[in-house]
Specification:
By secondary structure, the chain is of the alpha/beta class. It folds into 2 domains: about 5-170 and about 360-395, Nucleotidyltransferase, domain 5; about 180-355, 2-Layer Sandwich (Nucleotidyltransferase, domain 5), CATH 3.30.420.40. It is built from 14 helices and 12 strands. Strands 1, 2, 3, 4, 5, 6 and 12 form a 7-stranded mixed beta sheet that branches. Strands 9-8-7-10-11 form a 5-stranded mixed beta sheet. A hairpin with a 2-residue loop joins strand 7 and strand 8. The protein starts with a helix and ends with a strand. About 50% of the residues are buried. The structure holds adenosine-5'-triphosphate and ligand AH0. Adenosine-5'-triphosphate (ATP) binds near residues 192, 236 and 329. It is an enzyme of class 2 (transferase).
């Protein structure tokens, strides 16, 4: 037997694994690196987050990604070059963090890498009958494995599509394993570039849980912070807080069939982007809004669509006493969280930190949990429903 297969087999049989989860999301703010100690699998999964860092990307790198990110027409050579480049960069950032944490790469069992999404195209978005749901993440795992010397699982989304999903959201699996609690109806709300939530019913029934995107989280706020403030984001929602919501623009922004489509569903910055806002401004004749009013309206747009989706699941599931636990960078924006809480006065609000997982780290932890499940679990049935196939994800890269 190849010794590397033996090594993988030994890792799969360990009572506890040390897994580094990596997430580089649609905000392009940096690489989230979560070092996890994981015991068990499925609903007995127990995660301790030992270390966490977000390593910010420099402006040059962000600009490189933006040349190909969420665009229909790109420089294909640049895409090809960025694939190994991102893999090597992520590998190097892991080594730097391990050095800071005084941990040897040989002490890590597995790296679980999401990569960088460069294009997301569910059928509902691309509308080409003959093509399936599609999504593309780059930053090949072979480069991470070769550079760090650690077996790497990567490219988690393709299997989800192969078994009938849209390749996202994958949070359903990790949220169910980590955060489901008998006797409490929970909504795990993540506000990254795109917002999504997971519904965890109080009876713990895996065949009812799902995660759905709700639409924009921070993606439009960040795009306009770059334009209006020359900043990566509107820190603490300060510009938005100084403006007034424009109802005409808000209504125009909300007229998109995505918002009333059935759960679960996914979207991305391929749809919710500056041209989307400009088109709504044109339709509502609100092109000359002051910067603060535009930002206030965009925050309300995210809040309304998030709250509308949560309200729908509360009503459909006839949920009593729902608890919402927030995560992702949007939880740091008080204008956004304040607006959501105002729209959902019957919900109790907290953050995933209250449940033991730092909300900034949650998505990176998810990939560690998915890798753990592929190695040592795989027995939980989600009933093979539309959008939530029972599935093990991730491709294996050996260091040599
Ligand atoms: N203090 C703050 N005030 C306002 N917004 C903030 C603050 N801190 C973080 N954010 C927002 O959070 C964003 C980063 O969020 P996060 O890291 O969760 O996104 P992501 O993982 O890239 O997204 P996705 O989940 O869509 O892949 C920033 O770009 C910014 O919009
Ligand atoms: C294609 C893609 O990268 N989707 C991301 C994105 O960021 C948030 C939202 O859109 C979510 O659907 C997903 O990521 C999380 C980790 C998920 O799959 O659950």
């Amino acid at each position: 037997m190849n010794q590397q297969i033996q090594h993988l087999y030994d890792i799969a049989r360990k009572p506890e694994r040390r897994i580094i989860g990596l997430m580089s999301g649609t905000s392009l703010d940096g690489l989230d690196i979560a070092l996890c100690r994981i015991k068990g699998s499925g609903s007995t999964t127990a995660v301790v987050l030992e270390q966490f860092a977000t390593v910010p990307y420099d402006d040059d790198f962000k600009a490189e990604i933006r040349t190909i990110f969420a665009k229909r027409d790109i420089n294909f050579e640049r895409l090809c070059l960025l694939n190994p480049y991102i893999g090597r960069l992520h590998g190097q950032l892991i080594l730097d963090c391990l050095h800071t944490w005084a941990i040897e790469p040989s002490e890590i069992d597995v790296v679980a890498s999401h990569g960088q999404t460069v294009y997301h195209a569910p059928k509902s978005q691309h509308r080409h009958d003959k093509f399936p749901n599609a999504t593309l993440q780059i930053g090949d795992g072979d480069h991470i494995a070769a550079l760090t010397g650690v077996i790497t699982l990567s490219d988690f989304r393709q299997k989800h599509i192969a078994l009938g999903g849209e390749g996202a959201p994958l949070a359903v699996y990790g949220d169910y394993f980590m955060f489901s609690k008998a006797g409490q109806n929970r909504i795990l709300l993540n506000m990254g570039g795109i917002a999504n939530f997971t519904y965890l019913p109080a009876d713990g029934d895996a065949s009812k849980v799902f995660t759905t995107d709700t639409g924009p989280g921070n993606t439009l706020l960040d795009a306009y912070a770059r334009r209006l403030l020359n900043q990566p984001y509107d820190a603490d929602g300060r510009l938005a807080a100084s403006g007034q919501v424009n109802e005409l623009l808000l209504d125009a922004l909300k007229t998109n069939p995505f918002f009333n489509a059935p759960f679960p569903k996914t979207t991305g910055p391929e749809v919710f982007n500056v041209p989307y806002v400009e088109e709504a401004q044109q339709r509502s004749r609100t092109r000359d809004l002051p910067a603060a009013n535009l930002m206030a309206t965009l925050v309300q747009f995210s809040a309304d669509t998030i709250a509308h989706a949560i309200r729908r699941v509360i009503n459909e599931a006839e949920m009593s006493n729902p608890h919402v636990y927030m995560s992702g960078g949007g939880m740091h924006n008080p204008v956004l969280t304040g607006a959501i809480q105002k729209l959902l006065p019957d919900c109790a609000f907290g953050v995933t930190n209250d449940l033991g997982i730092n909300g900034d780290a949650k998505e990176a932890v998810l990939f560690a949990v998915l890798a753990n499940e592929s190695l040592a679990g795989g027995t939980t049935s989600f009933g093979n429903r539309q959008g939530v196939p029972t599935v093990s994800m991730g491709k294996v890269s050996f260091p040599k």
